[in-house]
From TrEMBL:
<feature type="domain" description="Thioesterase">
    <location>
        <begin position="71"/>
        <end position="140"/>
    </location>
</feature>
<dbReference type="InterPro" id="IPR006683">
    <property type="entry name" value="Thioestr_dom"/>
</dbReference>
<dbReference type="InterPro" id="IPR003736">
    <property type="entry name" value="PAAI_dom"/>
</dbReference>
<dbReference type="Pfam" id="PF03061">
    <property type="entry name" value="4HBT"/>
</dbReference>
<dbReference type="InterPro" id="IPR029069">
    <property type="entry name" value="HotDog_dom_sf"/>
</dbReference>
<dbReference type="GO" id="GO:0016787">
    <property type="term" value="F:hydrolase activity"/>
</dbReference>
<keyword id="KW-0378">Hydrolase</keyword>
<protein>
    <submittedName>
        <fullName>PaaI family thioesterase</fullName>
        <ecNumber>3.1.2.-</ecNumber>
    </submittedName>
</protein>
Length: 168
């Protein structure tokens, strides 16, 4: 299996026929997503669906079955990042610039979560993403997120003493 750096070094490698496999490989290379148990369900025309099965250690308190909001935040960020690739149809280094979530209701730990992230607009430097997080069993909307991602972040290094430009 190629590593994250190997996949990033090969632009224009996302194909509709193997987009889910590529997204799965990217997800497997990120330890945080792997440890949370995030799974890629689908990738289609700028939209990604990811699934997360709650674990008891994700609950905000031991006596509740409400999932900690930071888990939803991580799920939205991961699905949003993959939606950037699905919208651009190429792999490139990206960075989350902003992610705002509106929590509509608590996420119960008795059903899996689905994150459906859609690439709304792309420029050469920025991707704009919308993500809905739902409860899988009843498709109840739990949270919405809007995010911006910087595209093509490789090539510029920032240092404490100022900014230096390095070629990629």
């Amino acid at each position: 299996m190629p590593g994250w750096a190997d996949l990033m070094a090969k632009p224009n490698t996302v194909q509709h026929s193997n987009a889910v496999a590529t997204a799965w490989q990217l997800t497997e290379q990120v330890p945080h997503g792997r440890e949370l148990g995030m799974q890629v369900v689908s990738v289609d025309q700028g939209q990604v669906c990811m699934r997360l099965t709650p674990q008891s250690w994700m609950f905000s308190q031991e006596d509740t079955k409400e999932i900690c909001t930071s888990v939803l935040y991580s799920l939205a960020d991961s699905a949003g990042g993959l939606a950037v690739f699905a919208g651009a149809l190429e792999l490139m280094p990206i960075a989350t610039l902003d992610l705002r979530m509106d929590y509509l209701r608590p996420a119960g730990g008795d059903q899996a979560l689905l994150a459906v992230a859609t690439c709304r607009h792309l420029t050469d430097e920025v991707a704009f993403i919308h993500c809905d997080i739902l409860s899988e069993g009843n498709r109840e909307l739990l949270a919405t997120a809007n995010a911006t991602f910087m595209r093509n972040t490789q090539g510029q290094q920032f240092h404490a003493g100022g900014r230096e430009r390095e070629s990629a």
